[in-house]
């Protein structure tokens, strides 16, 4: 939702390449892997990884997409193995849970019908159990076998080279997760703009940092596990609860290193029919917001490709639902402030306190207790929401 804009990103990506990837001997390990590989398909795949290794580690998001397309074009079987393995791994686990539930239900019915001496129903239930068990075994044994072998072999080969765990466990003074997070200073989750993601290292122990989401999931694209522009500083909820290992290559989303919602997608208050709140703002103190308005994200940008990415992000990170359920009270307060701090009131404060306020945004920041300038939205949670609602209701 919020773009991560830093003038020094390319410099940091080079530092990441030299101070982590090269310094930890990963380039040498990759060349050794290539030299020792006997399988011609895997050897060719490793050659292309080596040939593009600098771009793999430092390439911007657009370049990473190009690399995925390039590798699919050159090594379709191997790339398909990663994708198929990841999808099937999830679908199999769901299938198995469903199968186990059906078996448990069928077993209860066996007991039920055996007591009732209903032999016809008892036979059909037993047949269902046996059929399901056979399906369960086949699903595990056959469908994944060849893809699992290819994917797991390469993932294992890459485990020491593209080692995300080694990156996150580096000492605080070395180049690793803490150093990168501290350099980036992304202090609010760019996916949701709801949670602080500060980095702090205590002198006597105790530390915190944002999680790093792999925009292109490392379970599908293991060679991007430590790619600089694939590591998105984010909150736990967005990374682990919502995003997980969804394939953002196949299903396009907003990449915070490339773009944000800006003013293209805006929060908007939609009053319910019959509500008098547009006139009687006092009722917002006493009436549950769910009886007064809905909070929606409106895409007003005439670009189909952007709209597709924006819709993907809104859906994956549950932005509409979470903001409406968790922050409508905050919106109610902004609506009330919009009655008190109209355009004339803002003008008066600007004039009366010229020594305090340089820009109108500074007055609005004081009034709303949040940043509202477009370039400041990553500085505090709910800044995007604050900007959109204050502008919609005349605090500007």
Can you characterise this structure?
With 396 residues, this protein is mainly alpha-helical. It has a domain at 265-392. It is built from 16 helices and six strands. The protein has helices at residues 9-22, 26-36, 40-51, 53-58, 61-74, 76-116, 119-143, 145-158, 164-168, 177-184, 236-243, 304-316, 319-340, 343-352, 360-368, 383-392; strands spanning 200-201, 207-208, 211-214, 231-234, 265-271, 293-299. The strands form three sheets. A two-stranded antiparallel ribbon has the order 1-2. It has a two-stranded antiparallel sheet with strand order 3-4. A two-stranded antiparallel ribbon has the order 5-6. A hairpin with a 5-residue loop joins strand 1 (200-201) and strand 2 (207-208). Helix 2 (26-36) packs antiparallel against helix 3 and helix 6 (76-116) packs across helix 8 (145-158). The chain starts with 8 loop residues before the first helix and ends with a helix. Residues 92-96 have low confidence and may be disordered.
Describe the structure using short key phrases:
single chain, about 400 residues, mainly alpha, two-stranded antiparallel ribbon, two-stranded antiparallel sheet, about 55% helix, globular
